[in-house]
């Protein structure tokens, strides 16, 4: 058994947990973060990608709106490479109530969320694909944020301040003494090794799993209601700004440009288990239709991938617990010493990725309220490592980088412009990485072909450079394809069927990956947050192919 020691253990390596470990380490605490999978593999890697301006909440939740507006500026400054400052529009469409625009503007003014009305013509000049019958338009400071980049740069900052980060390590027991929490027991999911960490404090940042982690401490239930949201990525960046519907929040009313694609979302359905999030085809269709309401012709673009995340909503007694849309999106910090008489424990939940830094600040403040020690929070002042001050992400950044080295480096993934050197560098840094771990770091296989060409190349590269033997490389490839399939199955219609058929013939026809000898792979991932079964069998794939050439928008199986 490995034994470690810390002032504070942080459970959960999503945005909240990495924000907390960074904050605690910067205040001088010996902090260890424990995450059962890879960083940002929970909700923070399965969200919509919007860096809120606050506009979404100005009418229903002005406090959240003001927090978003302030944190939007902070995150853009301290983690510029994770943020694209696209700007955003709120659009009153032909079927929407034009008077809501006045309510929106008044709310924005009260919450100090910058918003300005522009003419429909000006909006159409900015975003020519919008419905030309739009009635009113408002400009806001929405942006887009890459959750993985944000979480890793916060983690890098925490490490710089002495924080430790243990990934693929699951907390299985919280040890309590007469004084409260005094340690945790965990298991290394890759090696099975038991780990015991002695600590004086534990901050529970397990997102939709926070209720389960609180149960390990034997406190009164923390009621986290997972609200499942389905999102669909389209193969083109149909808009360059975030486009919101200017109406009371509803399903599918935000379109977010993310890197080279755009994402429509989201639904909001209460679910029992955040480890098992189905992606119902009816919800995918609902999203596509919602996209059509914002951008006529939306459904003729190719739907690339669908995924689901679970909002870690903390139960609000005023709202029926089946109504997750109207549960507060605000943050909840629970001091278990005050609530349950268990010292050394704080749970933080709710909130948004946009406000993660502020949530972390409140959580560490709550710890200091219990312990009576005081150190100022400095997370808003210091830029995270690896970032150039003032240089935000631009969609053209990657092309610029590749143009610089295109003559002396190979491209492994054309869609996402991932080079051989970049991939090998990541493999050196994370020798145990699966292709999915590398995907989260580099976006390998996330573009229009969904890994059809690059995944075999990446597996071949692992083999050719001694990072894996043949059987291990085949295992890496199979796992990657199985995971991609989870998000492909719900969008198999139109042009995506052609792409899937092509990929099928590459992997099964040319490479016969199902029958190559493969080693079982490292590391064991937790159940994926979707349940769409296995990759296509030969029969399923040939059925998809035999559907013949499909016209985009016509459903083979939707
Ligand atoms: C559909 C959807 C769309 C969203 N869109 C946006 C958006 O556009 N903009 C925005 O700002 N916010 C958005 N949000 C909200 C935002 O994504 C979340 O509030 C935020 O990511 C939550 O982060 P977290 O760290 O609290 O939880 P998570 O990211 O879920 O992290 C919790 C972590 O705890 C780990 N864990 C669980 N149990 C254990 C254990 N026993 N031991 C160790 N680790 C454990 C999990 O593996 C997980 O990684 C969206 C949410 C959803 C669901």
Task: Give the structure's gist in a few sentences.
The protein has 558 residues and is of the alpha+beta class. The chain has helices at 15-26, 62-78, 100-110, 120-126, 147-160, 210-216, 281-294, 336-340, 356-371, 397-405, 420-429, 435-442, 454-464, 470-488, 495-510, 538-546, and strands at residues 2-11, 31-34, 50-51, 83-84, 88-92, 115-118, 136-140, 143-145, 164-166, 169-177, 180-188, 194-204, 224-234, 242-245, 254-258, 261-265, 269-270, 303-314, 331-335, 345-350, 411-413, 418-419. Strands 5, 6, 7, 13, 14, 15, 16, 17 and 18 form a nine-stranded mixed beta sheet that branches. Strands 1, 2, 9, 10, 11, 12, 19 and 20 form an eight-stranded mixed beta sheet that branches.
What does this molecule look like?
By secondary structure, the chain is α+β, with helices and mostly antiparallel strands. Among the domains are: 82-144 and 226-312, D-Amino Acid Oxidase, Chain A, domain 2, CATH 3.30.9; 397-546, no CATH class. The protein has helices at residues 15-26, 62-78, 100-110, 120-126, 147-160, 210-216, 281-294, 336-340, 356-371, 397-405, 420-429, 435-442, 454-464, 470-488, 495-510, 538-546; strands spanning 2-11, 31-34, 50-51, 83-84, 88-92, 115-118, 136-140, 143-145, 164-166, 169-177, 180-188, 194-204, 224-234, 242-245, 254-258, 261-265, 269-270, 303-314, 331-335, 345-350, 411-413, 418-419. The strands form four sheets. Strands 5, 6, 7, 13, 14, 15, 16, 17 and 18 form a nine-stranded mixed sheet that branches. A hairpin with a 2-residue loop joins strand 15 and strand 16. The longest helix is centred in the C-terminal third of the chain and has 19 residues, at 470-488. It is globular. Flavin-adenine dinucleotide binds next to helix 1, strand 10 and strand 18.
């Amino acid at each position: 058994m490995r034994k470690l020691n810390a002032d504070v253990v942080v459970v959960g390596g999503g945005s909240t947990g990495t924000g907390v470990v960074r904050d605690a380490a910067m205040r001088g605490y010996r902090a260890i973060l424990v995450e059962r999978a890879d960083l940002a593999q929970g909700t923070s890697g399965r969200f919509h990608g919007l860096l809120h301006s606050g506009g979404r909440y100005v009418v229903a939740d002005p406090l959240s709106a003001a927090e978003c507006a302030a944190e939007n500026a902070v995150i853009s400054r301290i983690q510029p490479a994770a943020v694209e400052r696209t700007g955003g529009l709120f659009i009153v469409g032909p079927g929407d109530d034009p008077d809501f625009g006045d309510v929106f503007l008044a709310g924005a003014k009260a919450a100090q969320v910058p918003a300005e009305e522009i003419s429909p013509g000006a909006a159409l000049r900015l975003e020519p694909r919008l419905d030309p019958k739009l009635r009113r338009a408002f400009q806001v400071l929405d942006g887009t944020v890459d959750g993985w980049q944000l979480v890793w740069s916060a983690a890098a900052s925490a490490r710089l301040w002495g924080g430790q980060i243990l990934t693929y390590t699951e907390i299985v027991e919280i040890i309590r003494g007469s004084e409260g929490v005094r340690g945790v027991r965990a298991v290394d999911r890759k090696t099975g090794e038991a780990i015991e960490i002695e600590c004086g404090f534990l901050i529970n940042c397990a997102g939709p799993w926070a209720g389960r982690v609180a149960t390990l401490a034997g406190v009164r239930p923390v009621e986290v209601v997972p609200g499942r949201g389905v999102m669909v990525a389209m193969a083109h960046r149909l808009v360059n700004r975030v486009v919101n519907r200017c109406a009371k929040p509803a399903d599918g009313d935000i379109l977010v440009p993310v890197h080279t694609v755009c994402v429509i979302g989201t639904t909001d359905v209460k679910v029992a288990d955040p480890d098992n999030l189905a992606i119902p085809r009816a919800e995918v269709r609902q999203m596509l239709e919602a996209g059509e309401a914002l951008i006529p012709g939306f459904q003729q673009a190719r739907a690339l991938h669908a995924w689901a995340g679970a909002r870690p909503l903390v139960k609000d007694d005023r709202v029926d617990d089946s109504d997750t849309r109207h549960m507060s999106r605000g943050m909840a910090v629970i001091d278990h010493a005050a609530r349950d008489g268990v010292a050394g424990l704080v749970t933080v939940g709710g909130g948004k990725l946009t406000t993660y830094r502020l949530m972390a600040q409140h959580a560490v403040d709550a710890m200091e309220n219990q312990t009576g020690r005081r150190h100022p929070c400095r997370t808003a002042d210091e830029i995270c490592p690896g970032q150039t001050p003032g240089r935000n992400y631009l969609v053209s950044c990657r092309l610029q980088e590749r143009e610089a080295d295109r003559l002396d480096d190979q491209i492994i993934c054309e869609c996402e412009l991932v080079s051989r050197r970049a991939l090998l560098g990541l493999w050196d840094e994370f020798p145990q990485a699966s292709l999915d771990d590398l995907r989260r770091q580099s976006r390998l296989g996330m573009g229009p072909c969904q890994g059809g060409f690059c995944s075999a190349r990446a597996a071949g590269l692992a083999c050719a450079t001694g990072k894996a033997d043949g059987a291990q490389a085949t295992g890496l490839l199979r796992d990657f394809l199985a995971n991609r399939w989870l998000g492909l199955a719900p969008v198999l219609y139109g042009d995506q069927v052609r792409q899937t058929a092509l990929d099928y013939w590459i992997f099964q026809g040319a490479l016969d990956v199902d029958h190559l000898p493969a080693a079982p792979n490292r590391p064991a991932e937790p159940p994926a947050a979707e349940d769409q079964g296995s990759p296509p069998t030969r029969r399923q794939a040939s059925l998809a192919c035999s559907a013949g050439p499909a016209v985009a928008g016509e459903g083979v199986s939707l």
